[in-house]
Structure formats: structure tokens, C-alpha cells
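Hey,
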Amino acid sequence: MKNFLKGCVELPLWRSRYSQKNALFVGVIFLSMIAAVMLSFPIQAQNIRTPPQPSELRGVWLTNIDSDVLFEKNRLKNALQNLKQLNFNVVYPTVWNWGYTLYPSPVAKRVYGLSIDPQPGLQKRDMLKEVVQEGHKQGLKVIPWFEFGFMAPADSQLAKRRAYWLASRRDGSRIWKEGTHDRVWLSPFRPDVQKFMQNLIVEIVRKYDIDGIQFDDHFGLPSELGYDPYTRALYRKEHNGKAPPANFKDPEWVKWRADKITDFMKQVFFAIKAVKQDCIISVAPNPQRFSYEYFLADWEKWERMGFVEDLVLQVYRDDMNVFTRELERPEVKAARSHIPTSIGILTGLKNRTVPIEQVKAQVQAVRDRNFAGVSFFFYETLWNLSKESSQQRQSGFQEMFAIPKAYPNLLTGWKP
């Protein structure tokens, strides 16, 4: 390039040796070559701002923890109508939580004796059917969230009736603390556990007119677990009798377990597609390093293998510098070029308020980088559980979502 520019600068000096006509011809050739080289540069290098996307994912998770939105039909209906008025376009209602299904499940009934969560507000109703019917009436996509994955409360009927399904540490202990709660984990390596999980998932896909189904890090296993007798025997079988490493962070031991979970993800993907081809497989994990190291959930590999069709990355950070750094990670950029990739933003927790101005700043950072959209955790903290007034919060979302946008289409603008 420097030589090309030098040639153009020195072009007038050649006029003493060439005719003016020839000099003009040579100048045109130089400029053509410069133009060709410039056009060959990557678009990013030209610092051209991509125009706003014609679609934008605008989602929210509907939970049964610290929220009663799912526990009464009219309350649920009003919430969905309100979300539509504020130009949201997708909801993620939890359907598997605290060791129970939140919809009537024959699969659950057969395995641990209860077909639905005993919470009074869920009895004699089908909450998921209501979300699908009213959500679609309002033009919202409905993607049930399989929240607990392989996790269950330690005192649940599932854990009590299927104790031999549980994963353990090297010392045989099973309890895994989530805050103040005692949890246990089903071993994702056991065929009977895999069958139960797959049957639950396929049951939802088959019974309801859903638009997709969503998993997260709980579709893995805490890396400190995996020393139960079944998993030890399986490892020995595949390693010439060698026992699993004592260090649960041993790279080969981590990879072996993560790859087994990836194999199950593949199995579930095809089981879902066999029932409903257009059911979107959505994953809402933590950043890759955390998901892989702590939960053996290698979502980057899942995405590369084609088993994730919609990624909603949880970036629950208050520090904007930390927040934006996560958006720039290479695995995130790679996913963005393949599939719609959105960012999960924290709007608050029961005892933790997130100011609406922080939410707006993070939404803008996501938009500046042309992600597919945003989803908020969780419904109750949009405007109910907050130190700011409900009116102030809703006005903030009206400002963010002033114009309706369509849910991203998987079939347009994305590489396979």
C-alpha cells in the first residue's frame, strides 16, 4: 500500500518522460489497484457500523422462585399481556424445578410418584398449556426452561426414591450447597438417568405447541462430583482398569466427563428433532470458562457441533468493563457468526436491586455490538421487586423497546 501511495505522489515527476495522456493512464491504474486492495479488507477493519438488526430477541425468564406469576391463571395472563404491550417477544417459563415438573407429567409420576409440583397454585391446572395458549395469542414465543437439569433438592422424592442415581464426591459425600439449600445431582453418565431426563424433555415437546426448549449449566454436573460407583467403573472400563484421578480438576478427567455430557446433549438434540423438527434448542449458560470448569458443560463444543440453535449467555455483572469483556470473548464471537446469540442481563434478585439505568446501559452495550438480543432474569424484578417505582421501571423498558421487533429467524442470516 505504501508503494502504491508513493507511486501516486511521484506521478507528476514522470510527466517529463511520458506524455500527459500516458501519465493519466498510469494514474488510473494505480487508483484502481488501491481500490481493489481496500475492498479486499475485512469489513471490521474499515470501522463501518453495522445497521440495527431488523429483529431482536427480547425475552424474560418466568420463575416459581421469589415470584408467584405462574401460580394463578389470571395473574399469568395479565403478565403475558403486559410483556406484549412493552414489546417483549419471548418468554422462558420454568418447567422443571426443585425436583418437580410444573406441568402434569406422567413420566414424573412413574418415576417418583408425583405428576406435578405440590404448590397449591399449580393444582388442577396446566400452567404450561396456559402459557403456550396465551403467549401465542399475544404473539410471544414460548420456550420452556428446563431449569434444574440434573440437580434436585436433597430431600425430594426423586432423591429419596432413586438414591442410587446420585453422583458423589471422591469421599462419598453427595450434598452440594446452593446458597443455604442442600442439593444433590443425578449422575448424567447413567443410562437410566439419561432415559428419565430425555423422556421428560420429549414429553414436553410432544404434548405442547412450544417454540423451543432451553437448558443451562445444570445440564452438566459440578466438577467435584462424578466419583459414584457407576462412573468409576465406566472410567476404568475405558482406561484399562485405571481409576479416575484424585484431583477432580485433572484436565483429562474433566474432559472425559464433559465429553460424556456432550454425547448426551447430542442424543437429546436428535430425540427432540425426531418429534418436532422446528423445536428450537436453546442454551442459556454462564461464560464458557465457568461452565466447563465448574459444571462440565462444554457449550462452546455443543455450539460448534450444531446442537445449539439459540444461545442466551448469562452475563450477570455490575461492572460494565467486566460485562463488556465477556461480550468480546472469542467463543462468543464465533457463536454469533453461526447462530442467534443474545445476552442474559440481571434485572435484580429478591434482596438485590439492579438500577434501571444499569439495565439500560447494558442493553445498549449489547446493541452496540449487534447481538441478536437480550433476555432478563427475572420477571418479578423487571418492576415488582425493586427499590425504584414500578412506573419508573416500566417507563425504562418502554424506552428500551419503543418499537416492536420480531423474534430472530434461525433460517435467515445465520451460517449452519
